[in-house]
Amino acid sequence: MKKKTVLVIMVIVLLLLTIILVTFNKKEPEKKENQNKKSTPAVNEWYKPEGTSNEIDIYYYQGQNNYLSVFKNDDKSFIDNLYEYKNTYKCNITDCKVYSFSDDKVVIKDDKYILYNFVNNKAKKLSLPYAEYNDIRLLASNGKTYGLAVSNINNMYAFYSIKDKRFTTDFKYSNIFYKETDGLSKGYISTVINDNDNIKYYVINYNNDNIIHESDTYIGIVGNENYVYFYNNFSDLAEIDAFIYNEDFKPLFDKNYNMFSITKLGNVIVKNNDDTFSMYNKNGNLVKTSKEYKKILYMVNDYIIVIDKDDYLKIVDYDGNVKLKFDKLYYYEFDDSISGMYFSDKKSVIYIYINILSNDENQAIKYYYVPESMGKGKLNL
User: Fold this and answer.
1) Which phi-psi region, left, alpha or beta, contains residue 338 (left: φ > 0; alpha: ψ -120 to 50)?
2) What is the DSSP string of 245-283?
3) How far is CA 9 from CA 1, 17, 19, 22, in A?
4) In whole angstroms, what is the distance from residue 169 CA to residue 305 CA?
5) What does the alpha-carbon distance between residue 332 and residue 328 come to, in Å, rounded to a whole number?
6) How many Å apart are CA 198 and CA 192, to the nearest integer?
7) Whole-angstrom Cα distance, residue 202 to residue 193?
8) Quick one: which of 207, 187, 41 has its CA closest to 115?
9) Tens-binned pLDDT, residue by residue, of the chain (381 aa)
10) Contact assessment for residue 214 and residue 185, using Cβ atoms and an 8 Å cutoff
């Protein structure tokens, strides 16, 4: 009787062990599957890239104020102290590809299209269709990426919205002017359609592809997050000969200007022919005119870069207050193609590129000013 009882107990124990093992084996794959799901970043979710197939080093080049990418096996002998290493993107595929940079991000084609922030080494997968594109340009302003100007294999452009995760226009534009970023916060981009040499320029609302304004000449956008103005440029795009309009496309002045800027409060600063500058309110009424300078070089937001009568390079505000005094300049060239205000490490920075002319050897210098912290400096290039 005792033997029979022991045998029954052993059978029950074995049965319980079998049930436990079967249950565990069922749950374990589910657990592993869930762990794998958690480790795979979702589209539009920021993550640290840790691929092992290739690597892309990102550098900032002081000499031209731009960014470049160097792959793991590329020649790096040209890199010197003017190249500032930013970060390394680790690819999931061998033939990953770099498209375009903004002040802190780059578009990369990996196993999906990626928006990579090389400041904090974070990436996110875009829902951009995984197709071949001739060109992808970032459209960003003040550290915020609004969208992409994407051209297909037929060289026609469309706008891809980061927020809406889709194309919000058709591929019908001959170009989207990706440097015209001042209107992004209000939904504006500048475009052109060239139909058998019948060229039309447009400002459109990129959210719905509606035309805001149409013109036979280039339409630029200038302003900030709160105030936007438009202008027709009647010169070559490398120069400016602009007729300025308010946001309702009503003319602000009865003459053209070749240098102007919009302040944070929405006033318009223009350069006069006698190297003074004037500030007008949003209705085009004169507020004030500055003293005369030896040369006005550049305007950006609230700041004007000048050579004063004492030959010093200075940054002044719209009231004429000297914010910064650099060096005396006598024989020089100012590079307005790469000078201006940029967004770096969550701060706005003004860069001024000057080439000092000499009988012996010219010297390129990069001056910089950080309005937020009053930081300043210069770098011999």
Assistant:
1) alpha
2) E-TTS-BS-SS-BS-EEE-TTS-EEEE-TTS-EEEE-TT
3) 13, 12, 15, 20
4) 38
5) 10
6) 10
7) 8
8) 41
9) 545 554 555 555 555 555 555 555 554 444 444 444 445 666 668 999 999 999 999 999 988 888 999 998 898 889 988 899 999 999 999 999 999 998 899 999 999 999 999 999 999 999 999 999 999 999 998 778 999 999 999 999 999 999 999 999 999 999 999 888 889 999 999 999 998 889 999 999 999 999 999 999 999 999 888 899 999 886 655 567 789 999 999 999 999 998 999 999 999 999 999 999 999 999 999 999 999 999 999 999 999 999 999 999 999 999 999 999 999 999 999 998 888 888 776 788 899 999 999 877 888 999 989 988 778 888 888
10) no
CA distance 250 to 257: 16
User: What is the three-class DSSP state of 66?
Assistant: strand
* HSE-CB of 332 using CA atoms within 13 angstroms: 22
Distance, in Å, from the CA atom of 376 to the CA atom of 324, rounded to the nearest integer, reads 8
Where is 376: in which H helix or E strand? strand 375-380
- Residue 136 CA to residue 167 CA, distance in Å, equals 13
- The residue behind tokens 């900032």 is 60
Identity of the residue numbered 6: V
HSE toward the beta carbon, residue 322, CA cutoff 13 A: 12
Please identify which residue in the block is written with the tokens 């904090």: 120
Residue whose token pair is 């007729």:
243
Alpha carbon distance 354, 379 (integer Å): 11
What residue has token string 């210069």? Answer: 378
How far is it, in rounded angstroms, from Cα 34 to Cα 117? Answer: 28
Nearest residue to 183 via CA among 156, 159, 152, 155: 159
Q: Is the pTM of this model over 0.85?
A: no
Which pairing describes strands 188-195 and 198-205: parallel, antiparallel, or unpaired? antiparallel
CB atoms within 10 A of CB 82: 15
CA distance 184 to 238: 22
Q: How far apart are CA 243 and CA 323, in angstroms?
A: 30
Cα 299 from Cα 311, distance rounded (Å):
18
